[in-house]
Specification:
GROEL, domain 1, ATP-dependent protein folding chaperone, GroEL, ATP hydrolysis activity, 18 helices, 20 strands, alpha+beta, nucleotide-binding, binds magnesium ion, binds adenosine-5'-diphosphate, three-stranded mixed β-sheet, seven-stranded mixed β-sheet
Length: 519
């Protein structure tokens, strides 16, 4: 036919096809996984990320690192999504999922070099992933998931994180206590646990508050700093002369008239204060202003008032105490009051905080995180957030597996055994999947200064003879042993999710052989 070539795309668009497209995508995906590899495990290092405005984040958390890295390459972005999905679904294991995905891509590249077709790789990987899920089921520990095991789960997820001067052990206790507090018949109400950070003390001072903590201060210095057994009125009312009212024009042509106007205003303000005082509330939360004269009066009456409370704090107070929001002072009655065991106001340097403890309506608790600097509390907040997630996951499913690489060793072993029965080139892909999983124990070894190959050989031998073998870090010591006995455990769901999302992303990237990008 010959003739003119036909353009079906804009001349500006960029197109990469075939092997080139595959290898550039694989390379980008691998690079992302490589970026988080050194942070894995108890001896993982931290990363300092500086954005274009100079804002600094110091973290060990895979999802946070990838998120902050501002990755643009579309295939690389898919690995970032693996970490994000992992974070959303189970709250931990983001680095693990990322490095597995990266290694699945690395193995796929070798297979492509050996002329194994992408669809064969994809089939093999899916088959291996399903064997992996069976292997995880087999690794689930027999012991019932009690507080002791939950503490181990929390501690395993926090080791290597910026837990400051605090032993992970006491933080783990706080985390388990928090999750137990919000446990219901239908599972764990994870949303009822919040984390509030406050700079200024050592992380040892981190504690569990049986209630909520908000950034609010009393409207007047003379008010009580704490009220026990509080009846709380929540108002959407301005307690003062409304600015709108003052605009009304008065024709004042004598001192008497002026005095009368002032008296009228005084008595209006006095009226508000008396209405509030007589309602029987001992704590008042209002979303609007409170006139100084009203504050003074209420302070004298021993009433604690918080003014201009933000809408999210107001909502939290309402859900904790069971108060009903009142829009007009005349409508205020006892039935609308919320209740709490104690409401207190505390000052922390530049910050004022209000604690609402023992709210009558909801079992909310707050992990009140302390730390010397902003970077410390921020990283602690992430570590505790992850620990809360994994403890909730482990408690709900009742399933934990050995950590420290033992589960990955067991999965790889089962896959290799079953691979023997798989025909053709697909067998190569199934075996490659097992090889990719070795990245977890290898990296744990490398990050503790061990030779990764030696460690792998020793771990496989120990797995063969003992059935369970991980590379356990305890202080300065690194030993091979049964992680269940040493208390290094991860929720089974963290491993399940990591395998699933890493497999999905890797197979999706491998299948792409044509990248068309608009300029
Ligand atoms: P991720 O983002 O994947 O959770 P982490 O840096 O939290 O990455 O590392 C998690 C890995 O570290 C898991 O495989 C876990 O079993 C392992 N781990 C936790 N504590 C220990 C320990 N004391 N010794 C060895 N491995 C541990
Ligand atoms: Mg972790």
């Amino acid at each position: 036919m010959g003739g003119q070539p036909m353009f079906i795309m804009s001349e500006d668009s960029q197109r990469t096809q075939g092997r080139d497209a595959q290898s550039s995508n694989i390379m980008a995906g691998k690079a992302v996984a490589e970026a988080v590899r050194t942070t894995l495990g108890p001896r993982g290092m931290d990363k300092m990320l500086v954005d274009s405005s100079g804002e600094v984040v110091i973290t060990n958390d895979g999802a946070t690192i990838l998120n902050e890295m501002d990755i643009e390459h579309p295939a690389a972005q898919m690995i970032v999504e693996v970490a994000e999905t992992q974070e959303e679904e189970v709250g931990d294991g983001t680095t693990t999922a990322g490095v597995i995905a990266g290694n699945l891509l690395g193995e796929a590249e070798d297979l492509i070099d050996q002329d194994v077709h992408a669809t064969t790789i994809v089939e093999g990987y899916h088959e291996a992933a399903s064997i992996a899920q069976d292997a995880i089921d087999e690794q689930v520990g027999d012991a019932a998931v009690d507080d002791e095991i939950l503490k181990q789960v929390a501690e395993s997820s926090m080791t290597g994180k910026g837990t400051g001067g605090l032993t992970a052990e006491s933080l783990a206790e706080t985390v388990v206590e928090a999750v137990r507090h919000v446990e219901t018949d239908d599972g764990v109400a994870r949303d009822n646990v919040t984390v509030h950070t406050q700079i200024g003390a050592s992380s040892n001072a981190t504690e569990l508050v049986p209630g909520i903590v908000i950034d609010e201060e009393p409207a007047h210095e003379g008010m009580p700093s704490a009220v026990e057994d509080a009846s709380i009125a929540v108002l959407d009312v301005e307690l003062g002369v409304r600015t709108g009212d003052v605009d009304a024009e008065y024709a004042i042509d004598s001192i008497d008239q002026l005095n009368a106007a002032i008296d009228a205003e005084e008595s209006e303000v006095q009226g508000y204060a008396e209405t509030v005082a007589e309602s029987g509330a001992d704590v008042v939360i209002t979303t609007d202003d409170v006139d100084d004269r009203v504050s003074t009066f209420l302070a004298n009456e021993g009433i604690l008032v918080f003014e201009n409370v933000g809408s999210s704090d107001t909502k939290d107070i309402i859900s904790a105490t069971g108060a009903t929001r009142v829009g007009a002072l005349d409508d205020l009655e006892e039935a609308d009051f919320g209740h709490a065991d104690r409401i207190s106001a505390e000052n922390y340097g530049d910050d004022d905080l209000a604690f609402v403890e023992g709210g009558a309506a909801a079992e909310t608790v707050t992990v009140f995180v302390r730390g010397g600097t902003e970077h410390v509390v921020d990283e602690l907040e992430r570590a505790i957030g992850d620990a809360l997630d994994v403890v909730a996951t482990a408690l709900e499913s009742g399933e934990v597996v050995p950590g420290a690489g033992a589960t990955e060793i067991a999965i790889a072993d089962k896959i290799r055994q079953e691979a023997a029965g798989i025909e053709g080139r697909k067998q190569l892909a199934v075996t490659a999947f097992a090889d990719a999983l070795d990245v977890v124990p290898r990296t744990l070894a490398a990050n503790t200064g061990q030779d990764p190959i030696d460690a792998l050989v020793d771990l496989r031998a120990a797995h063969e003879s003992e059935g369970r073998a991980g590379l356990i870090t305890d202080g300065e010591d690194v030993t091979i042993g049964d992680p269940l006995e040493s208390g290094v455990v991860d929720p089974a769901d963290v491993k399940r999710e990591a395998i699933e999302s890493a497999t999905e992303a890797a197979t999706m990237i491998v299948r792409i052989d044509d990248v068309i990008a608009a300029e």
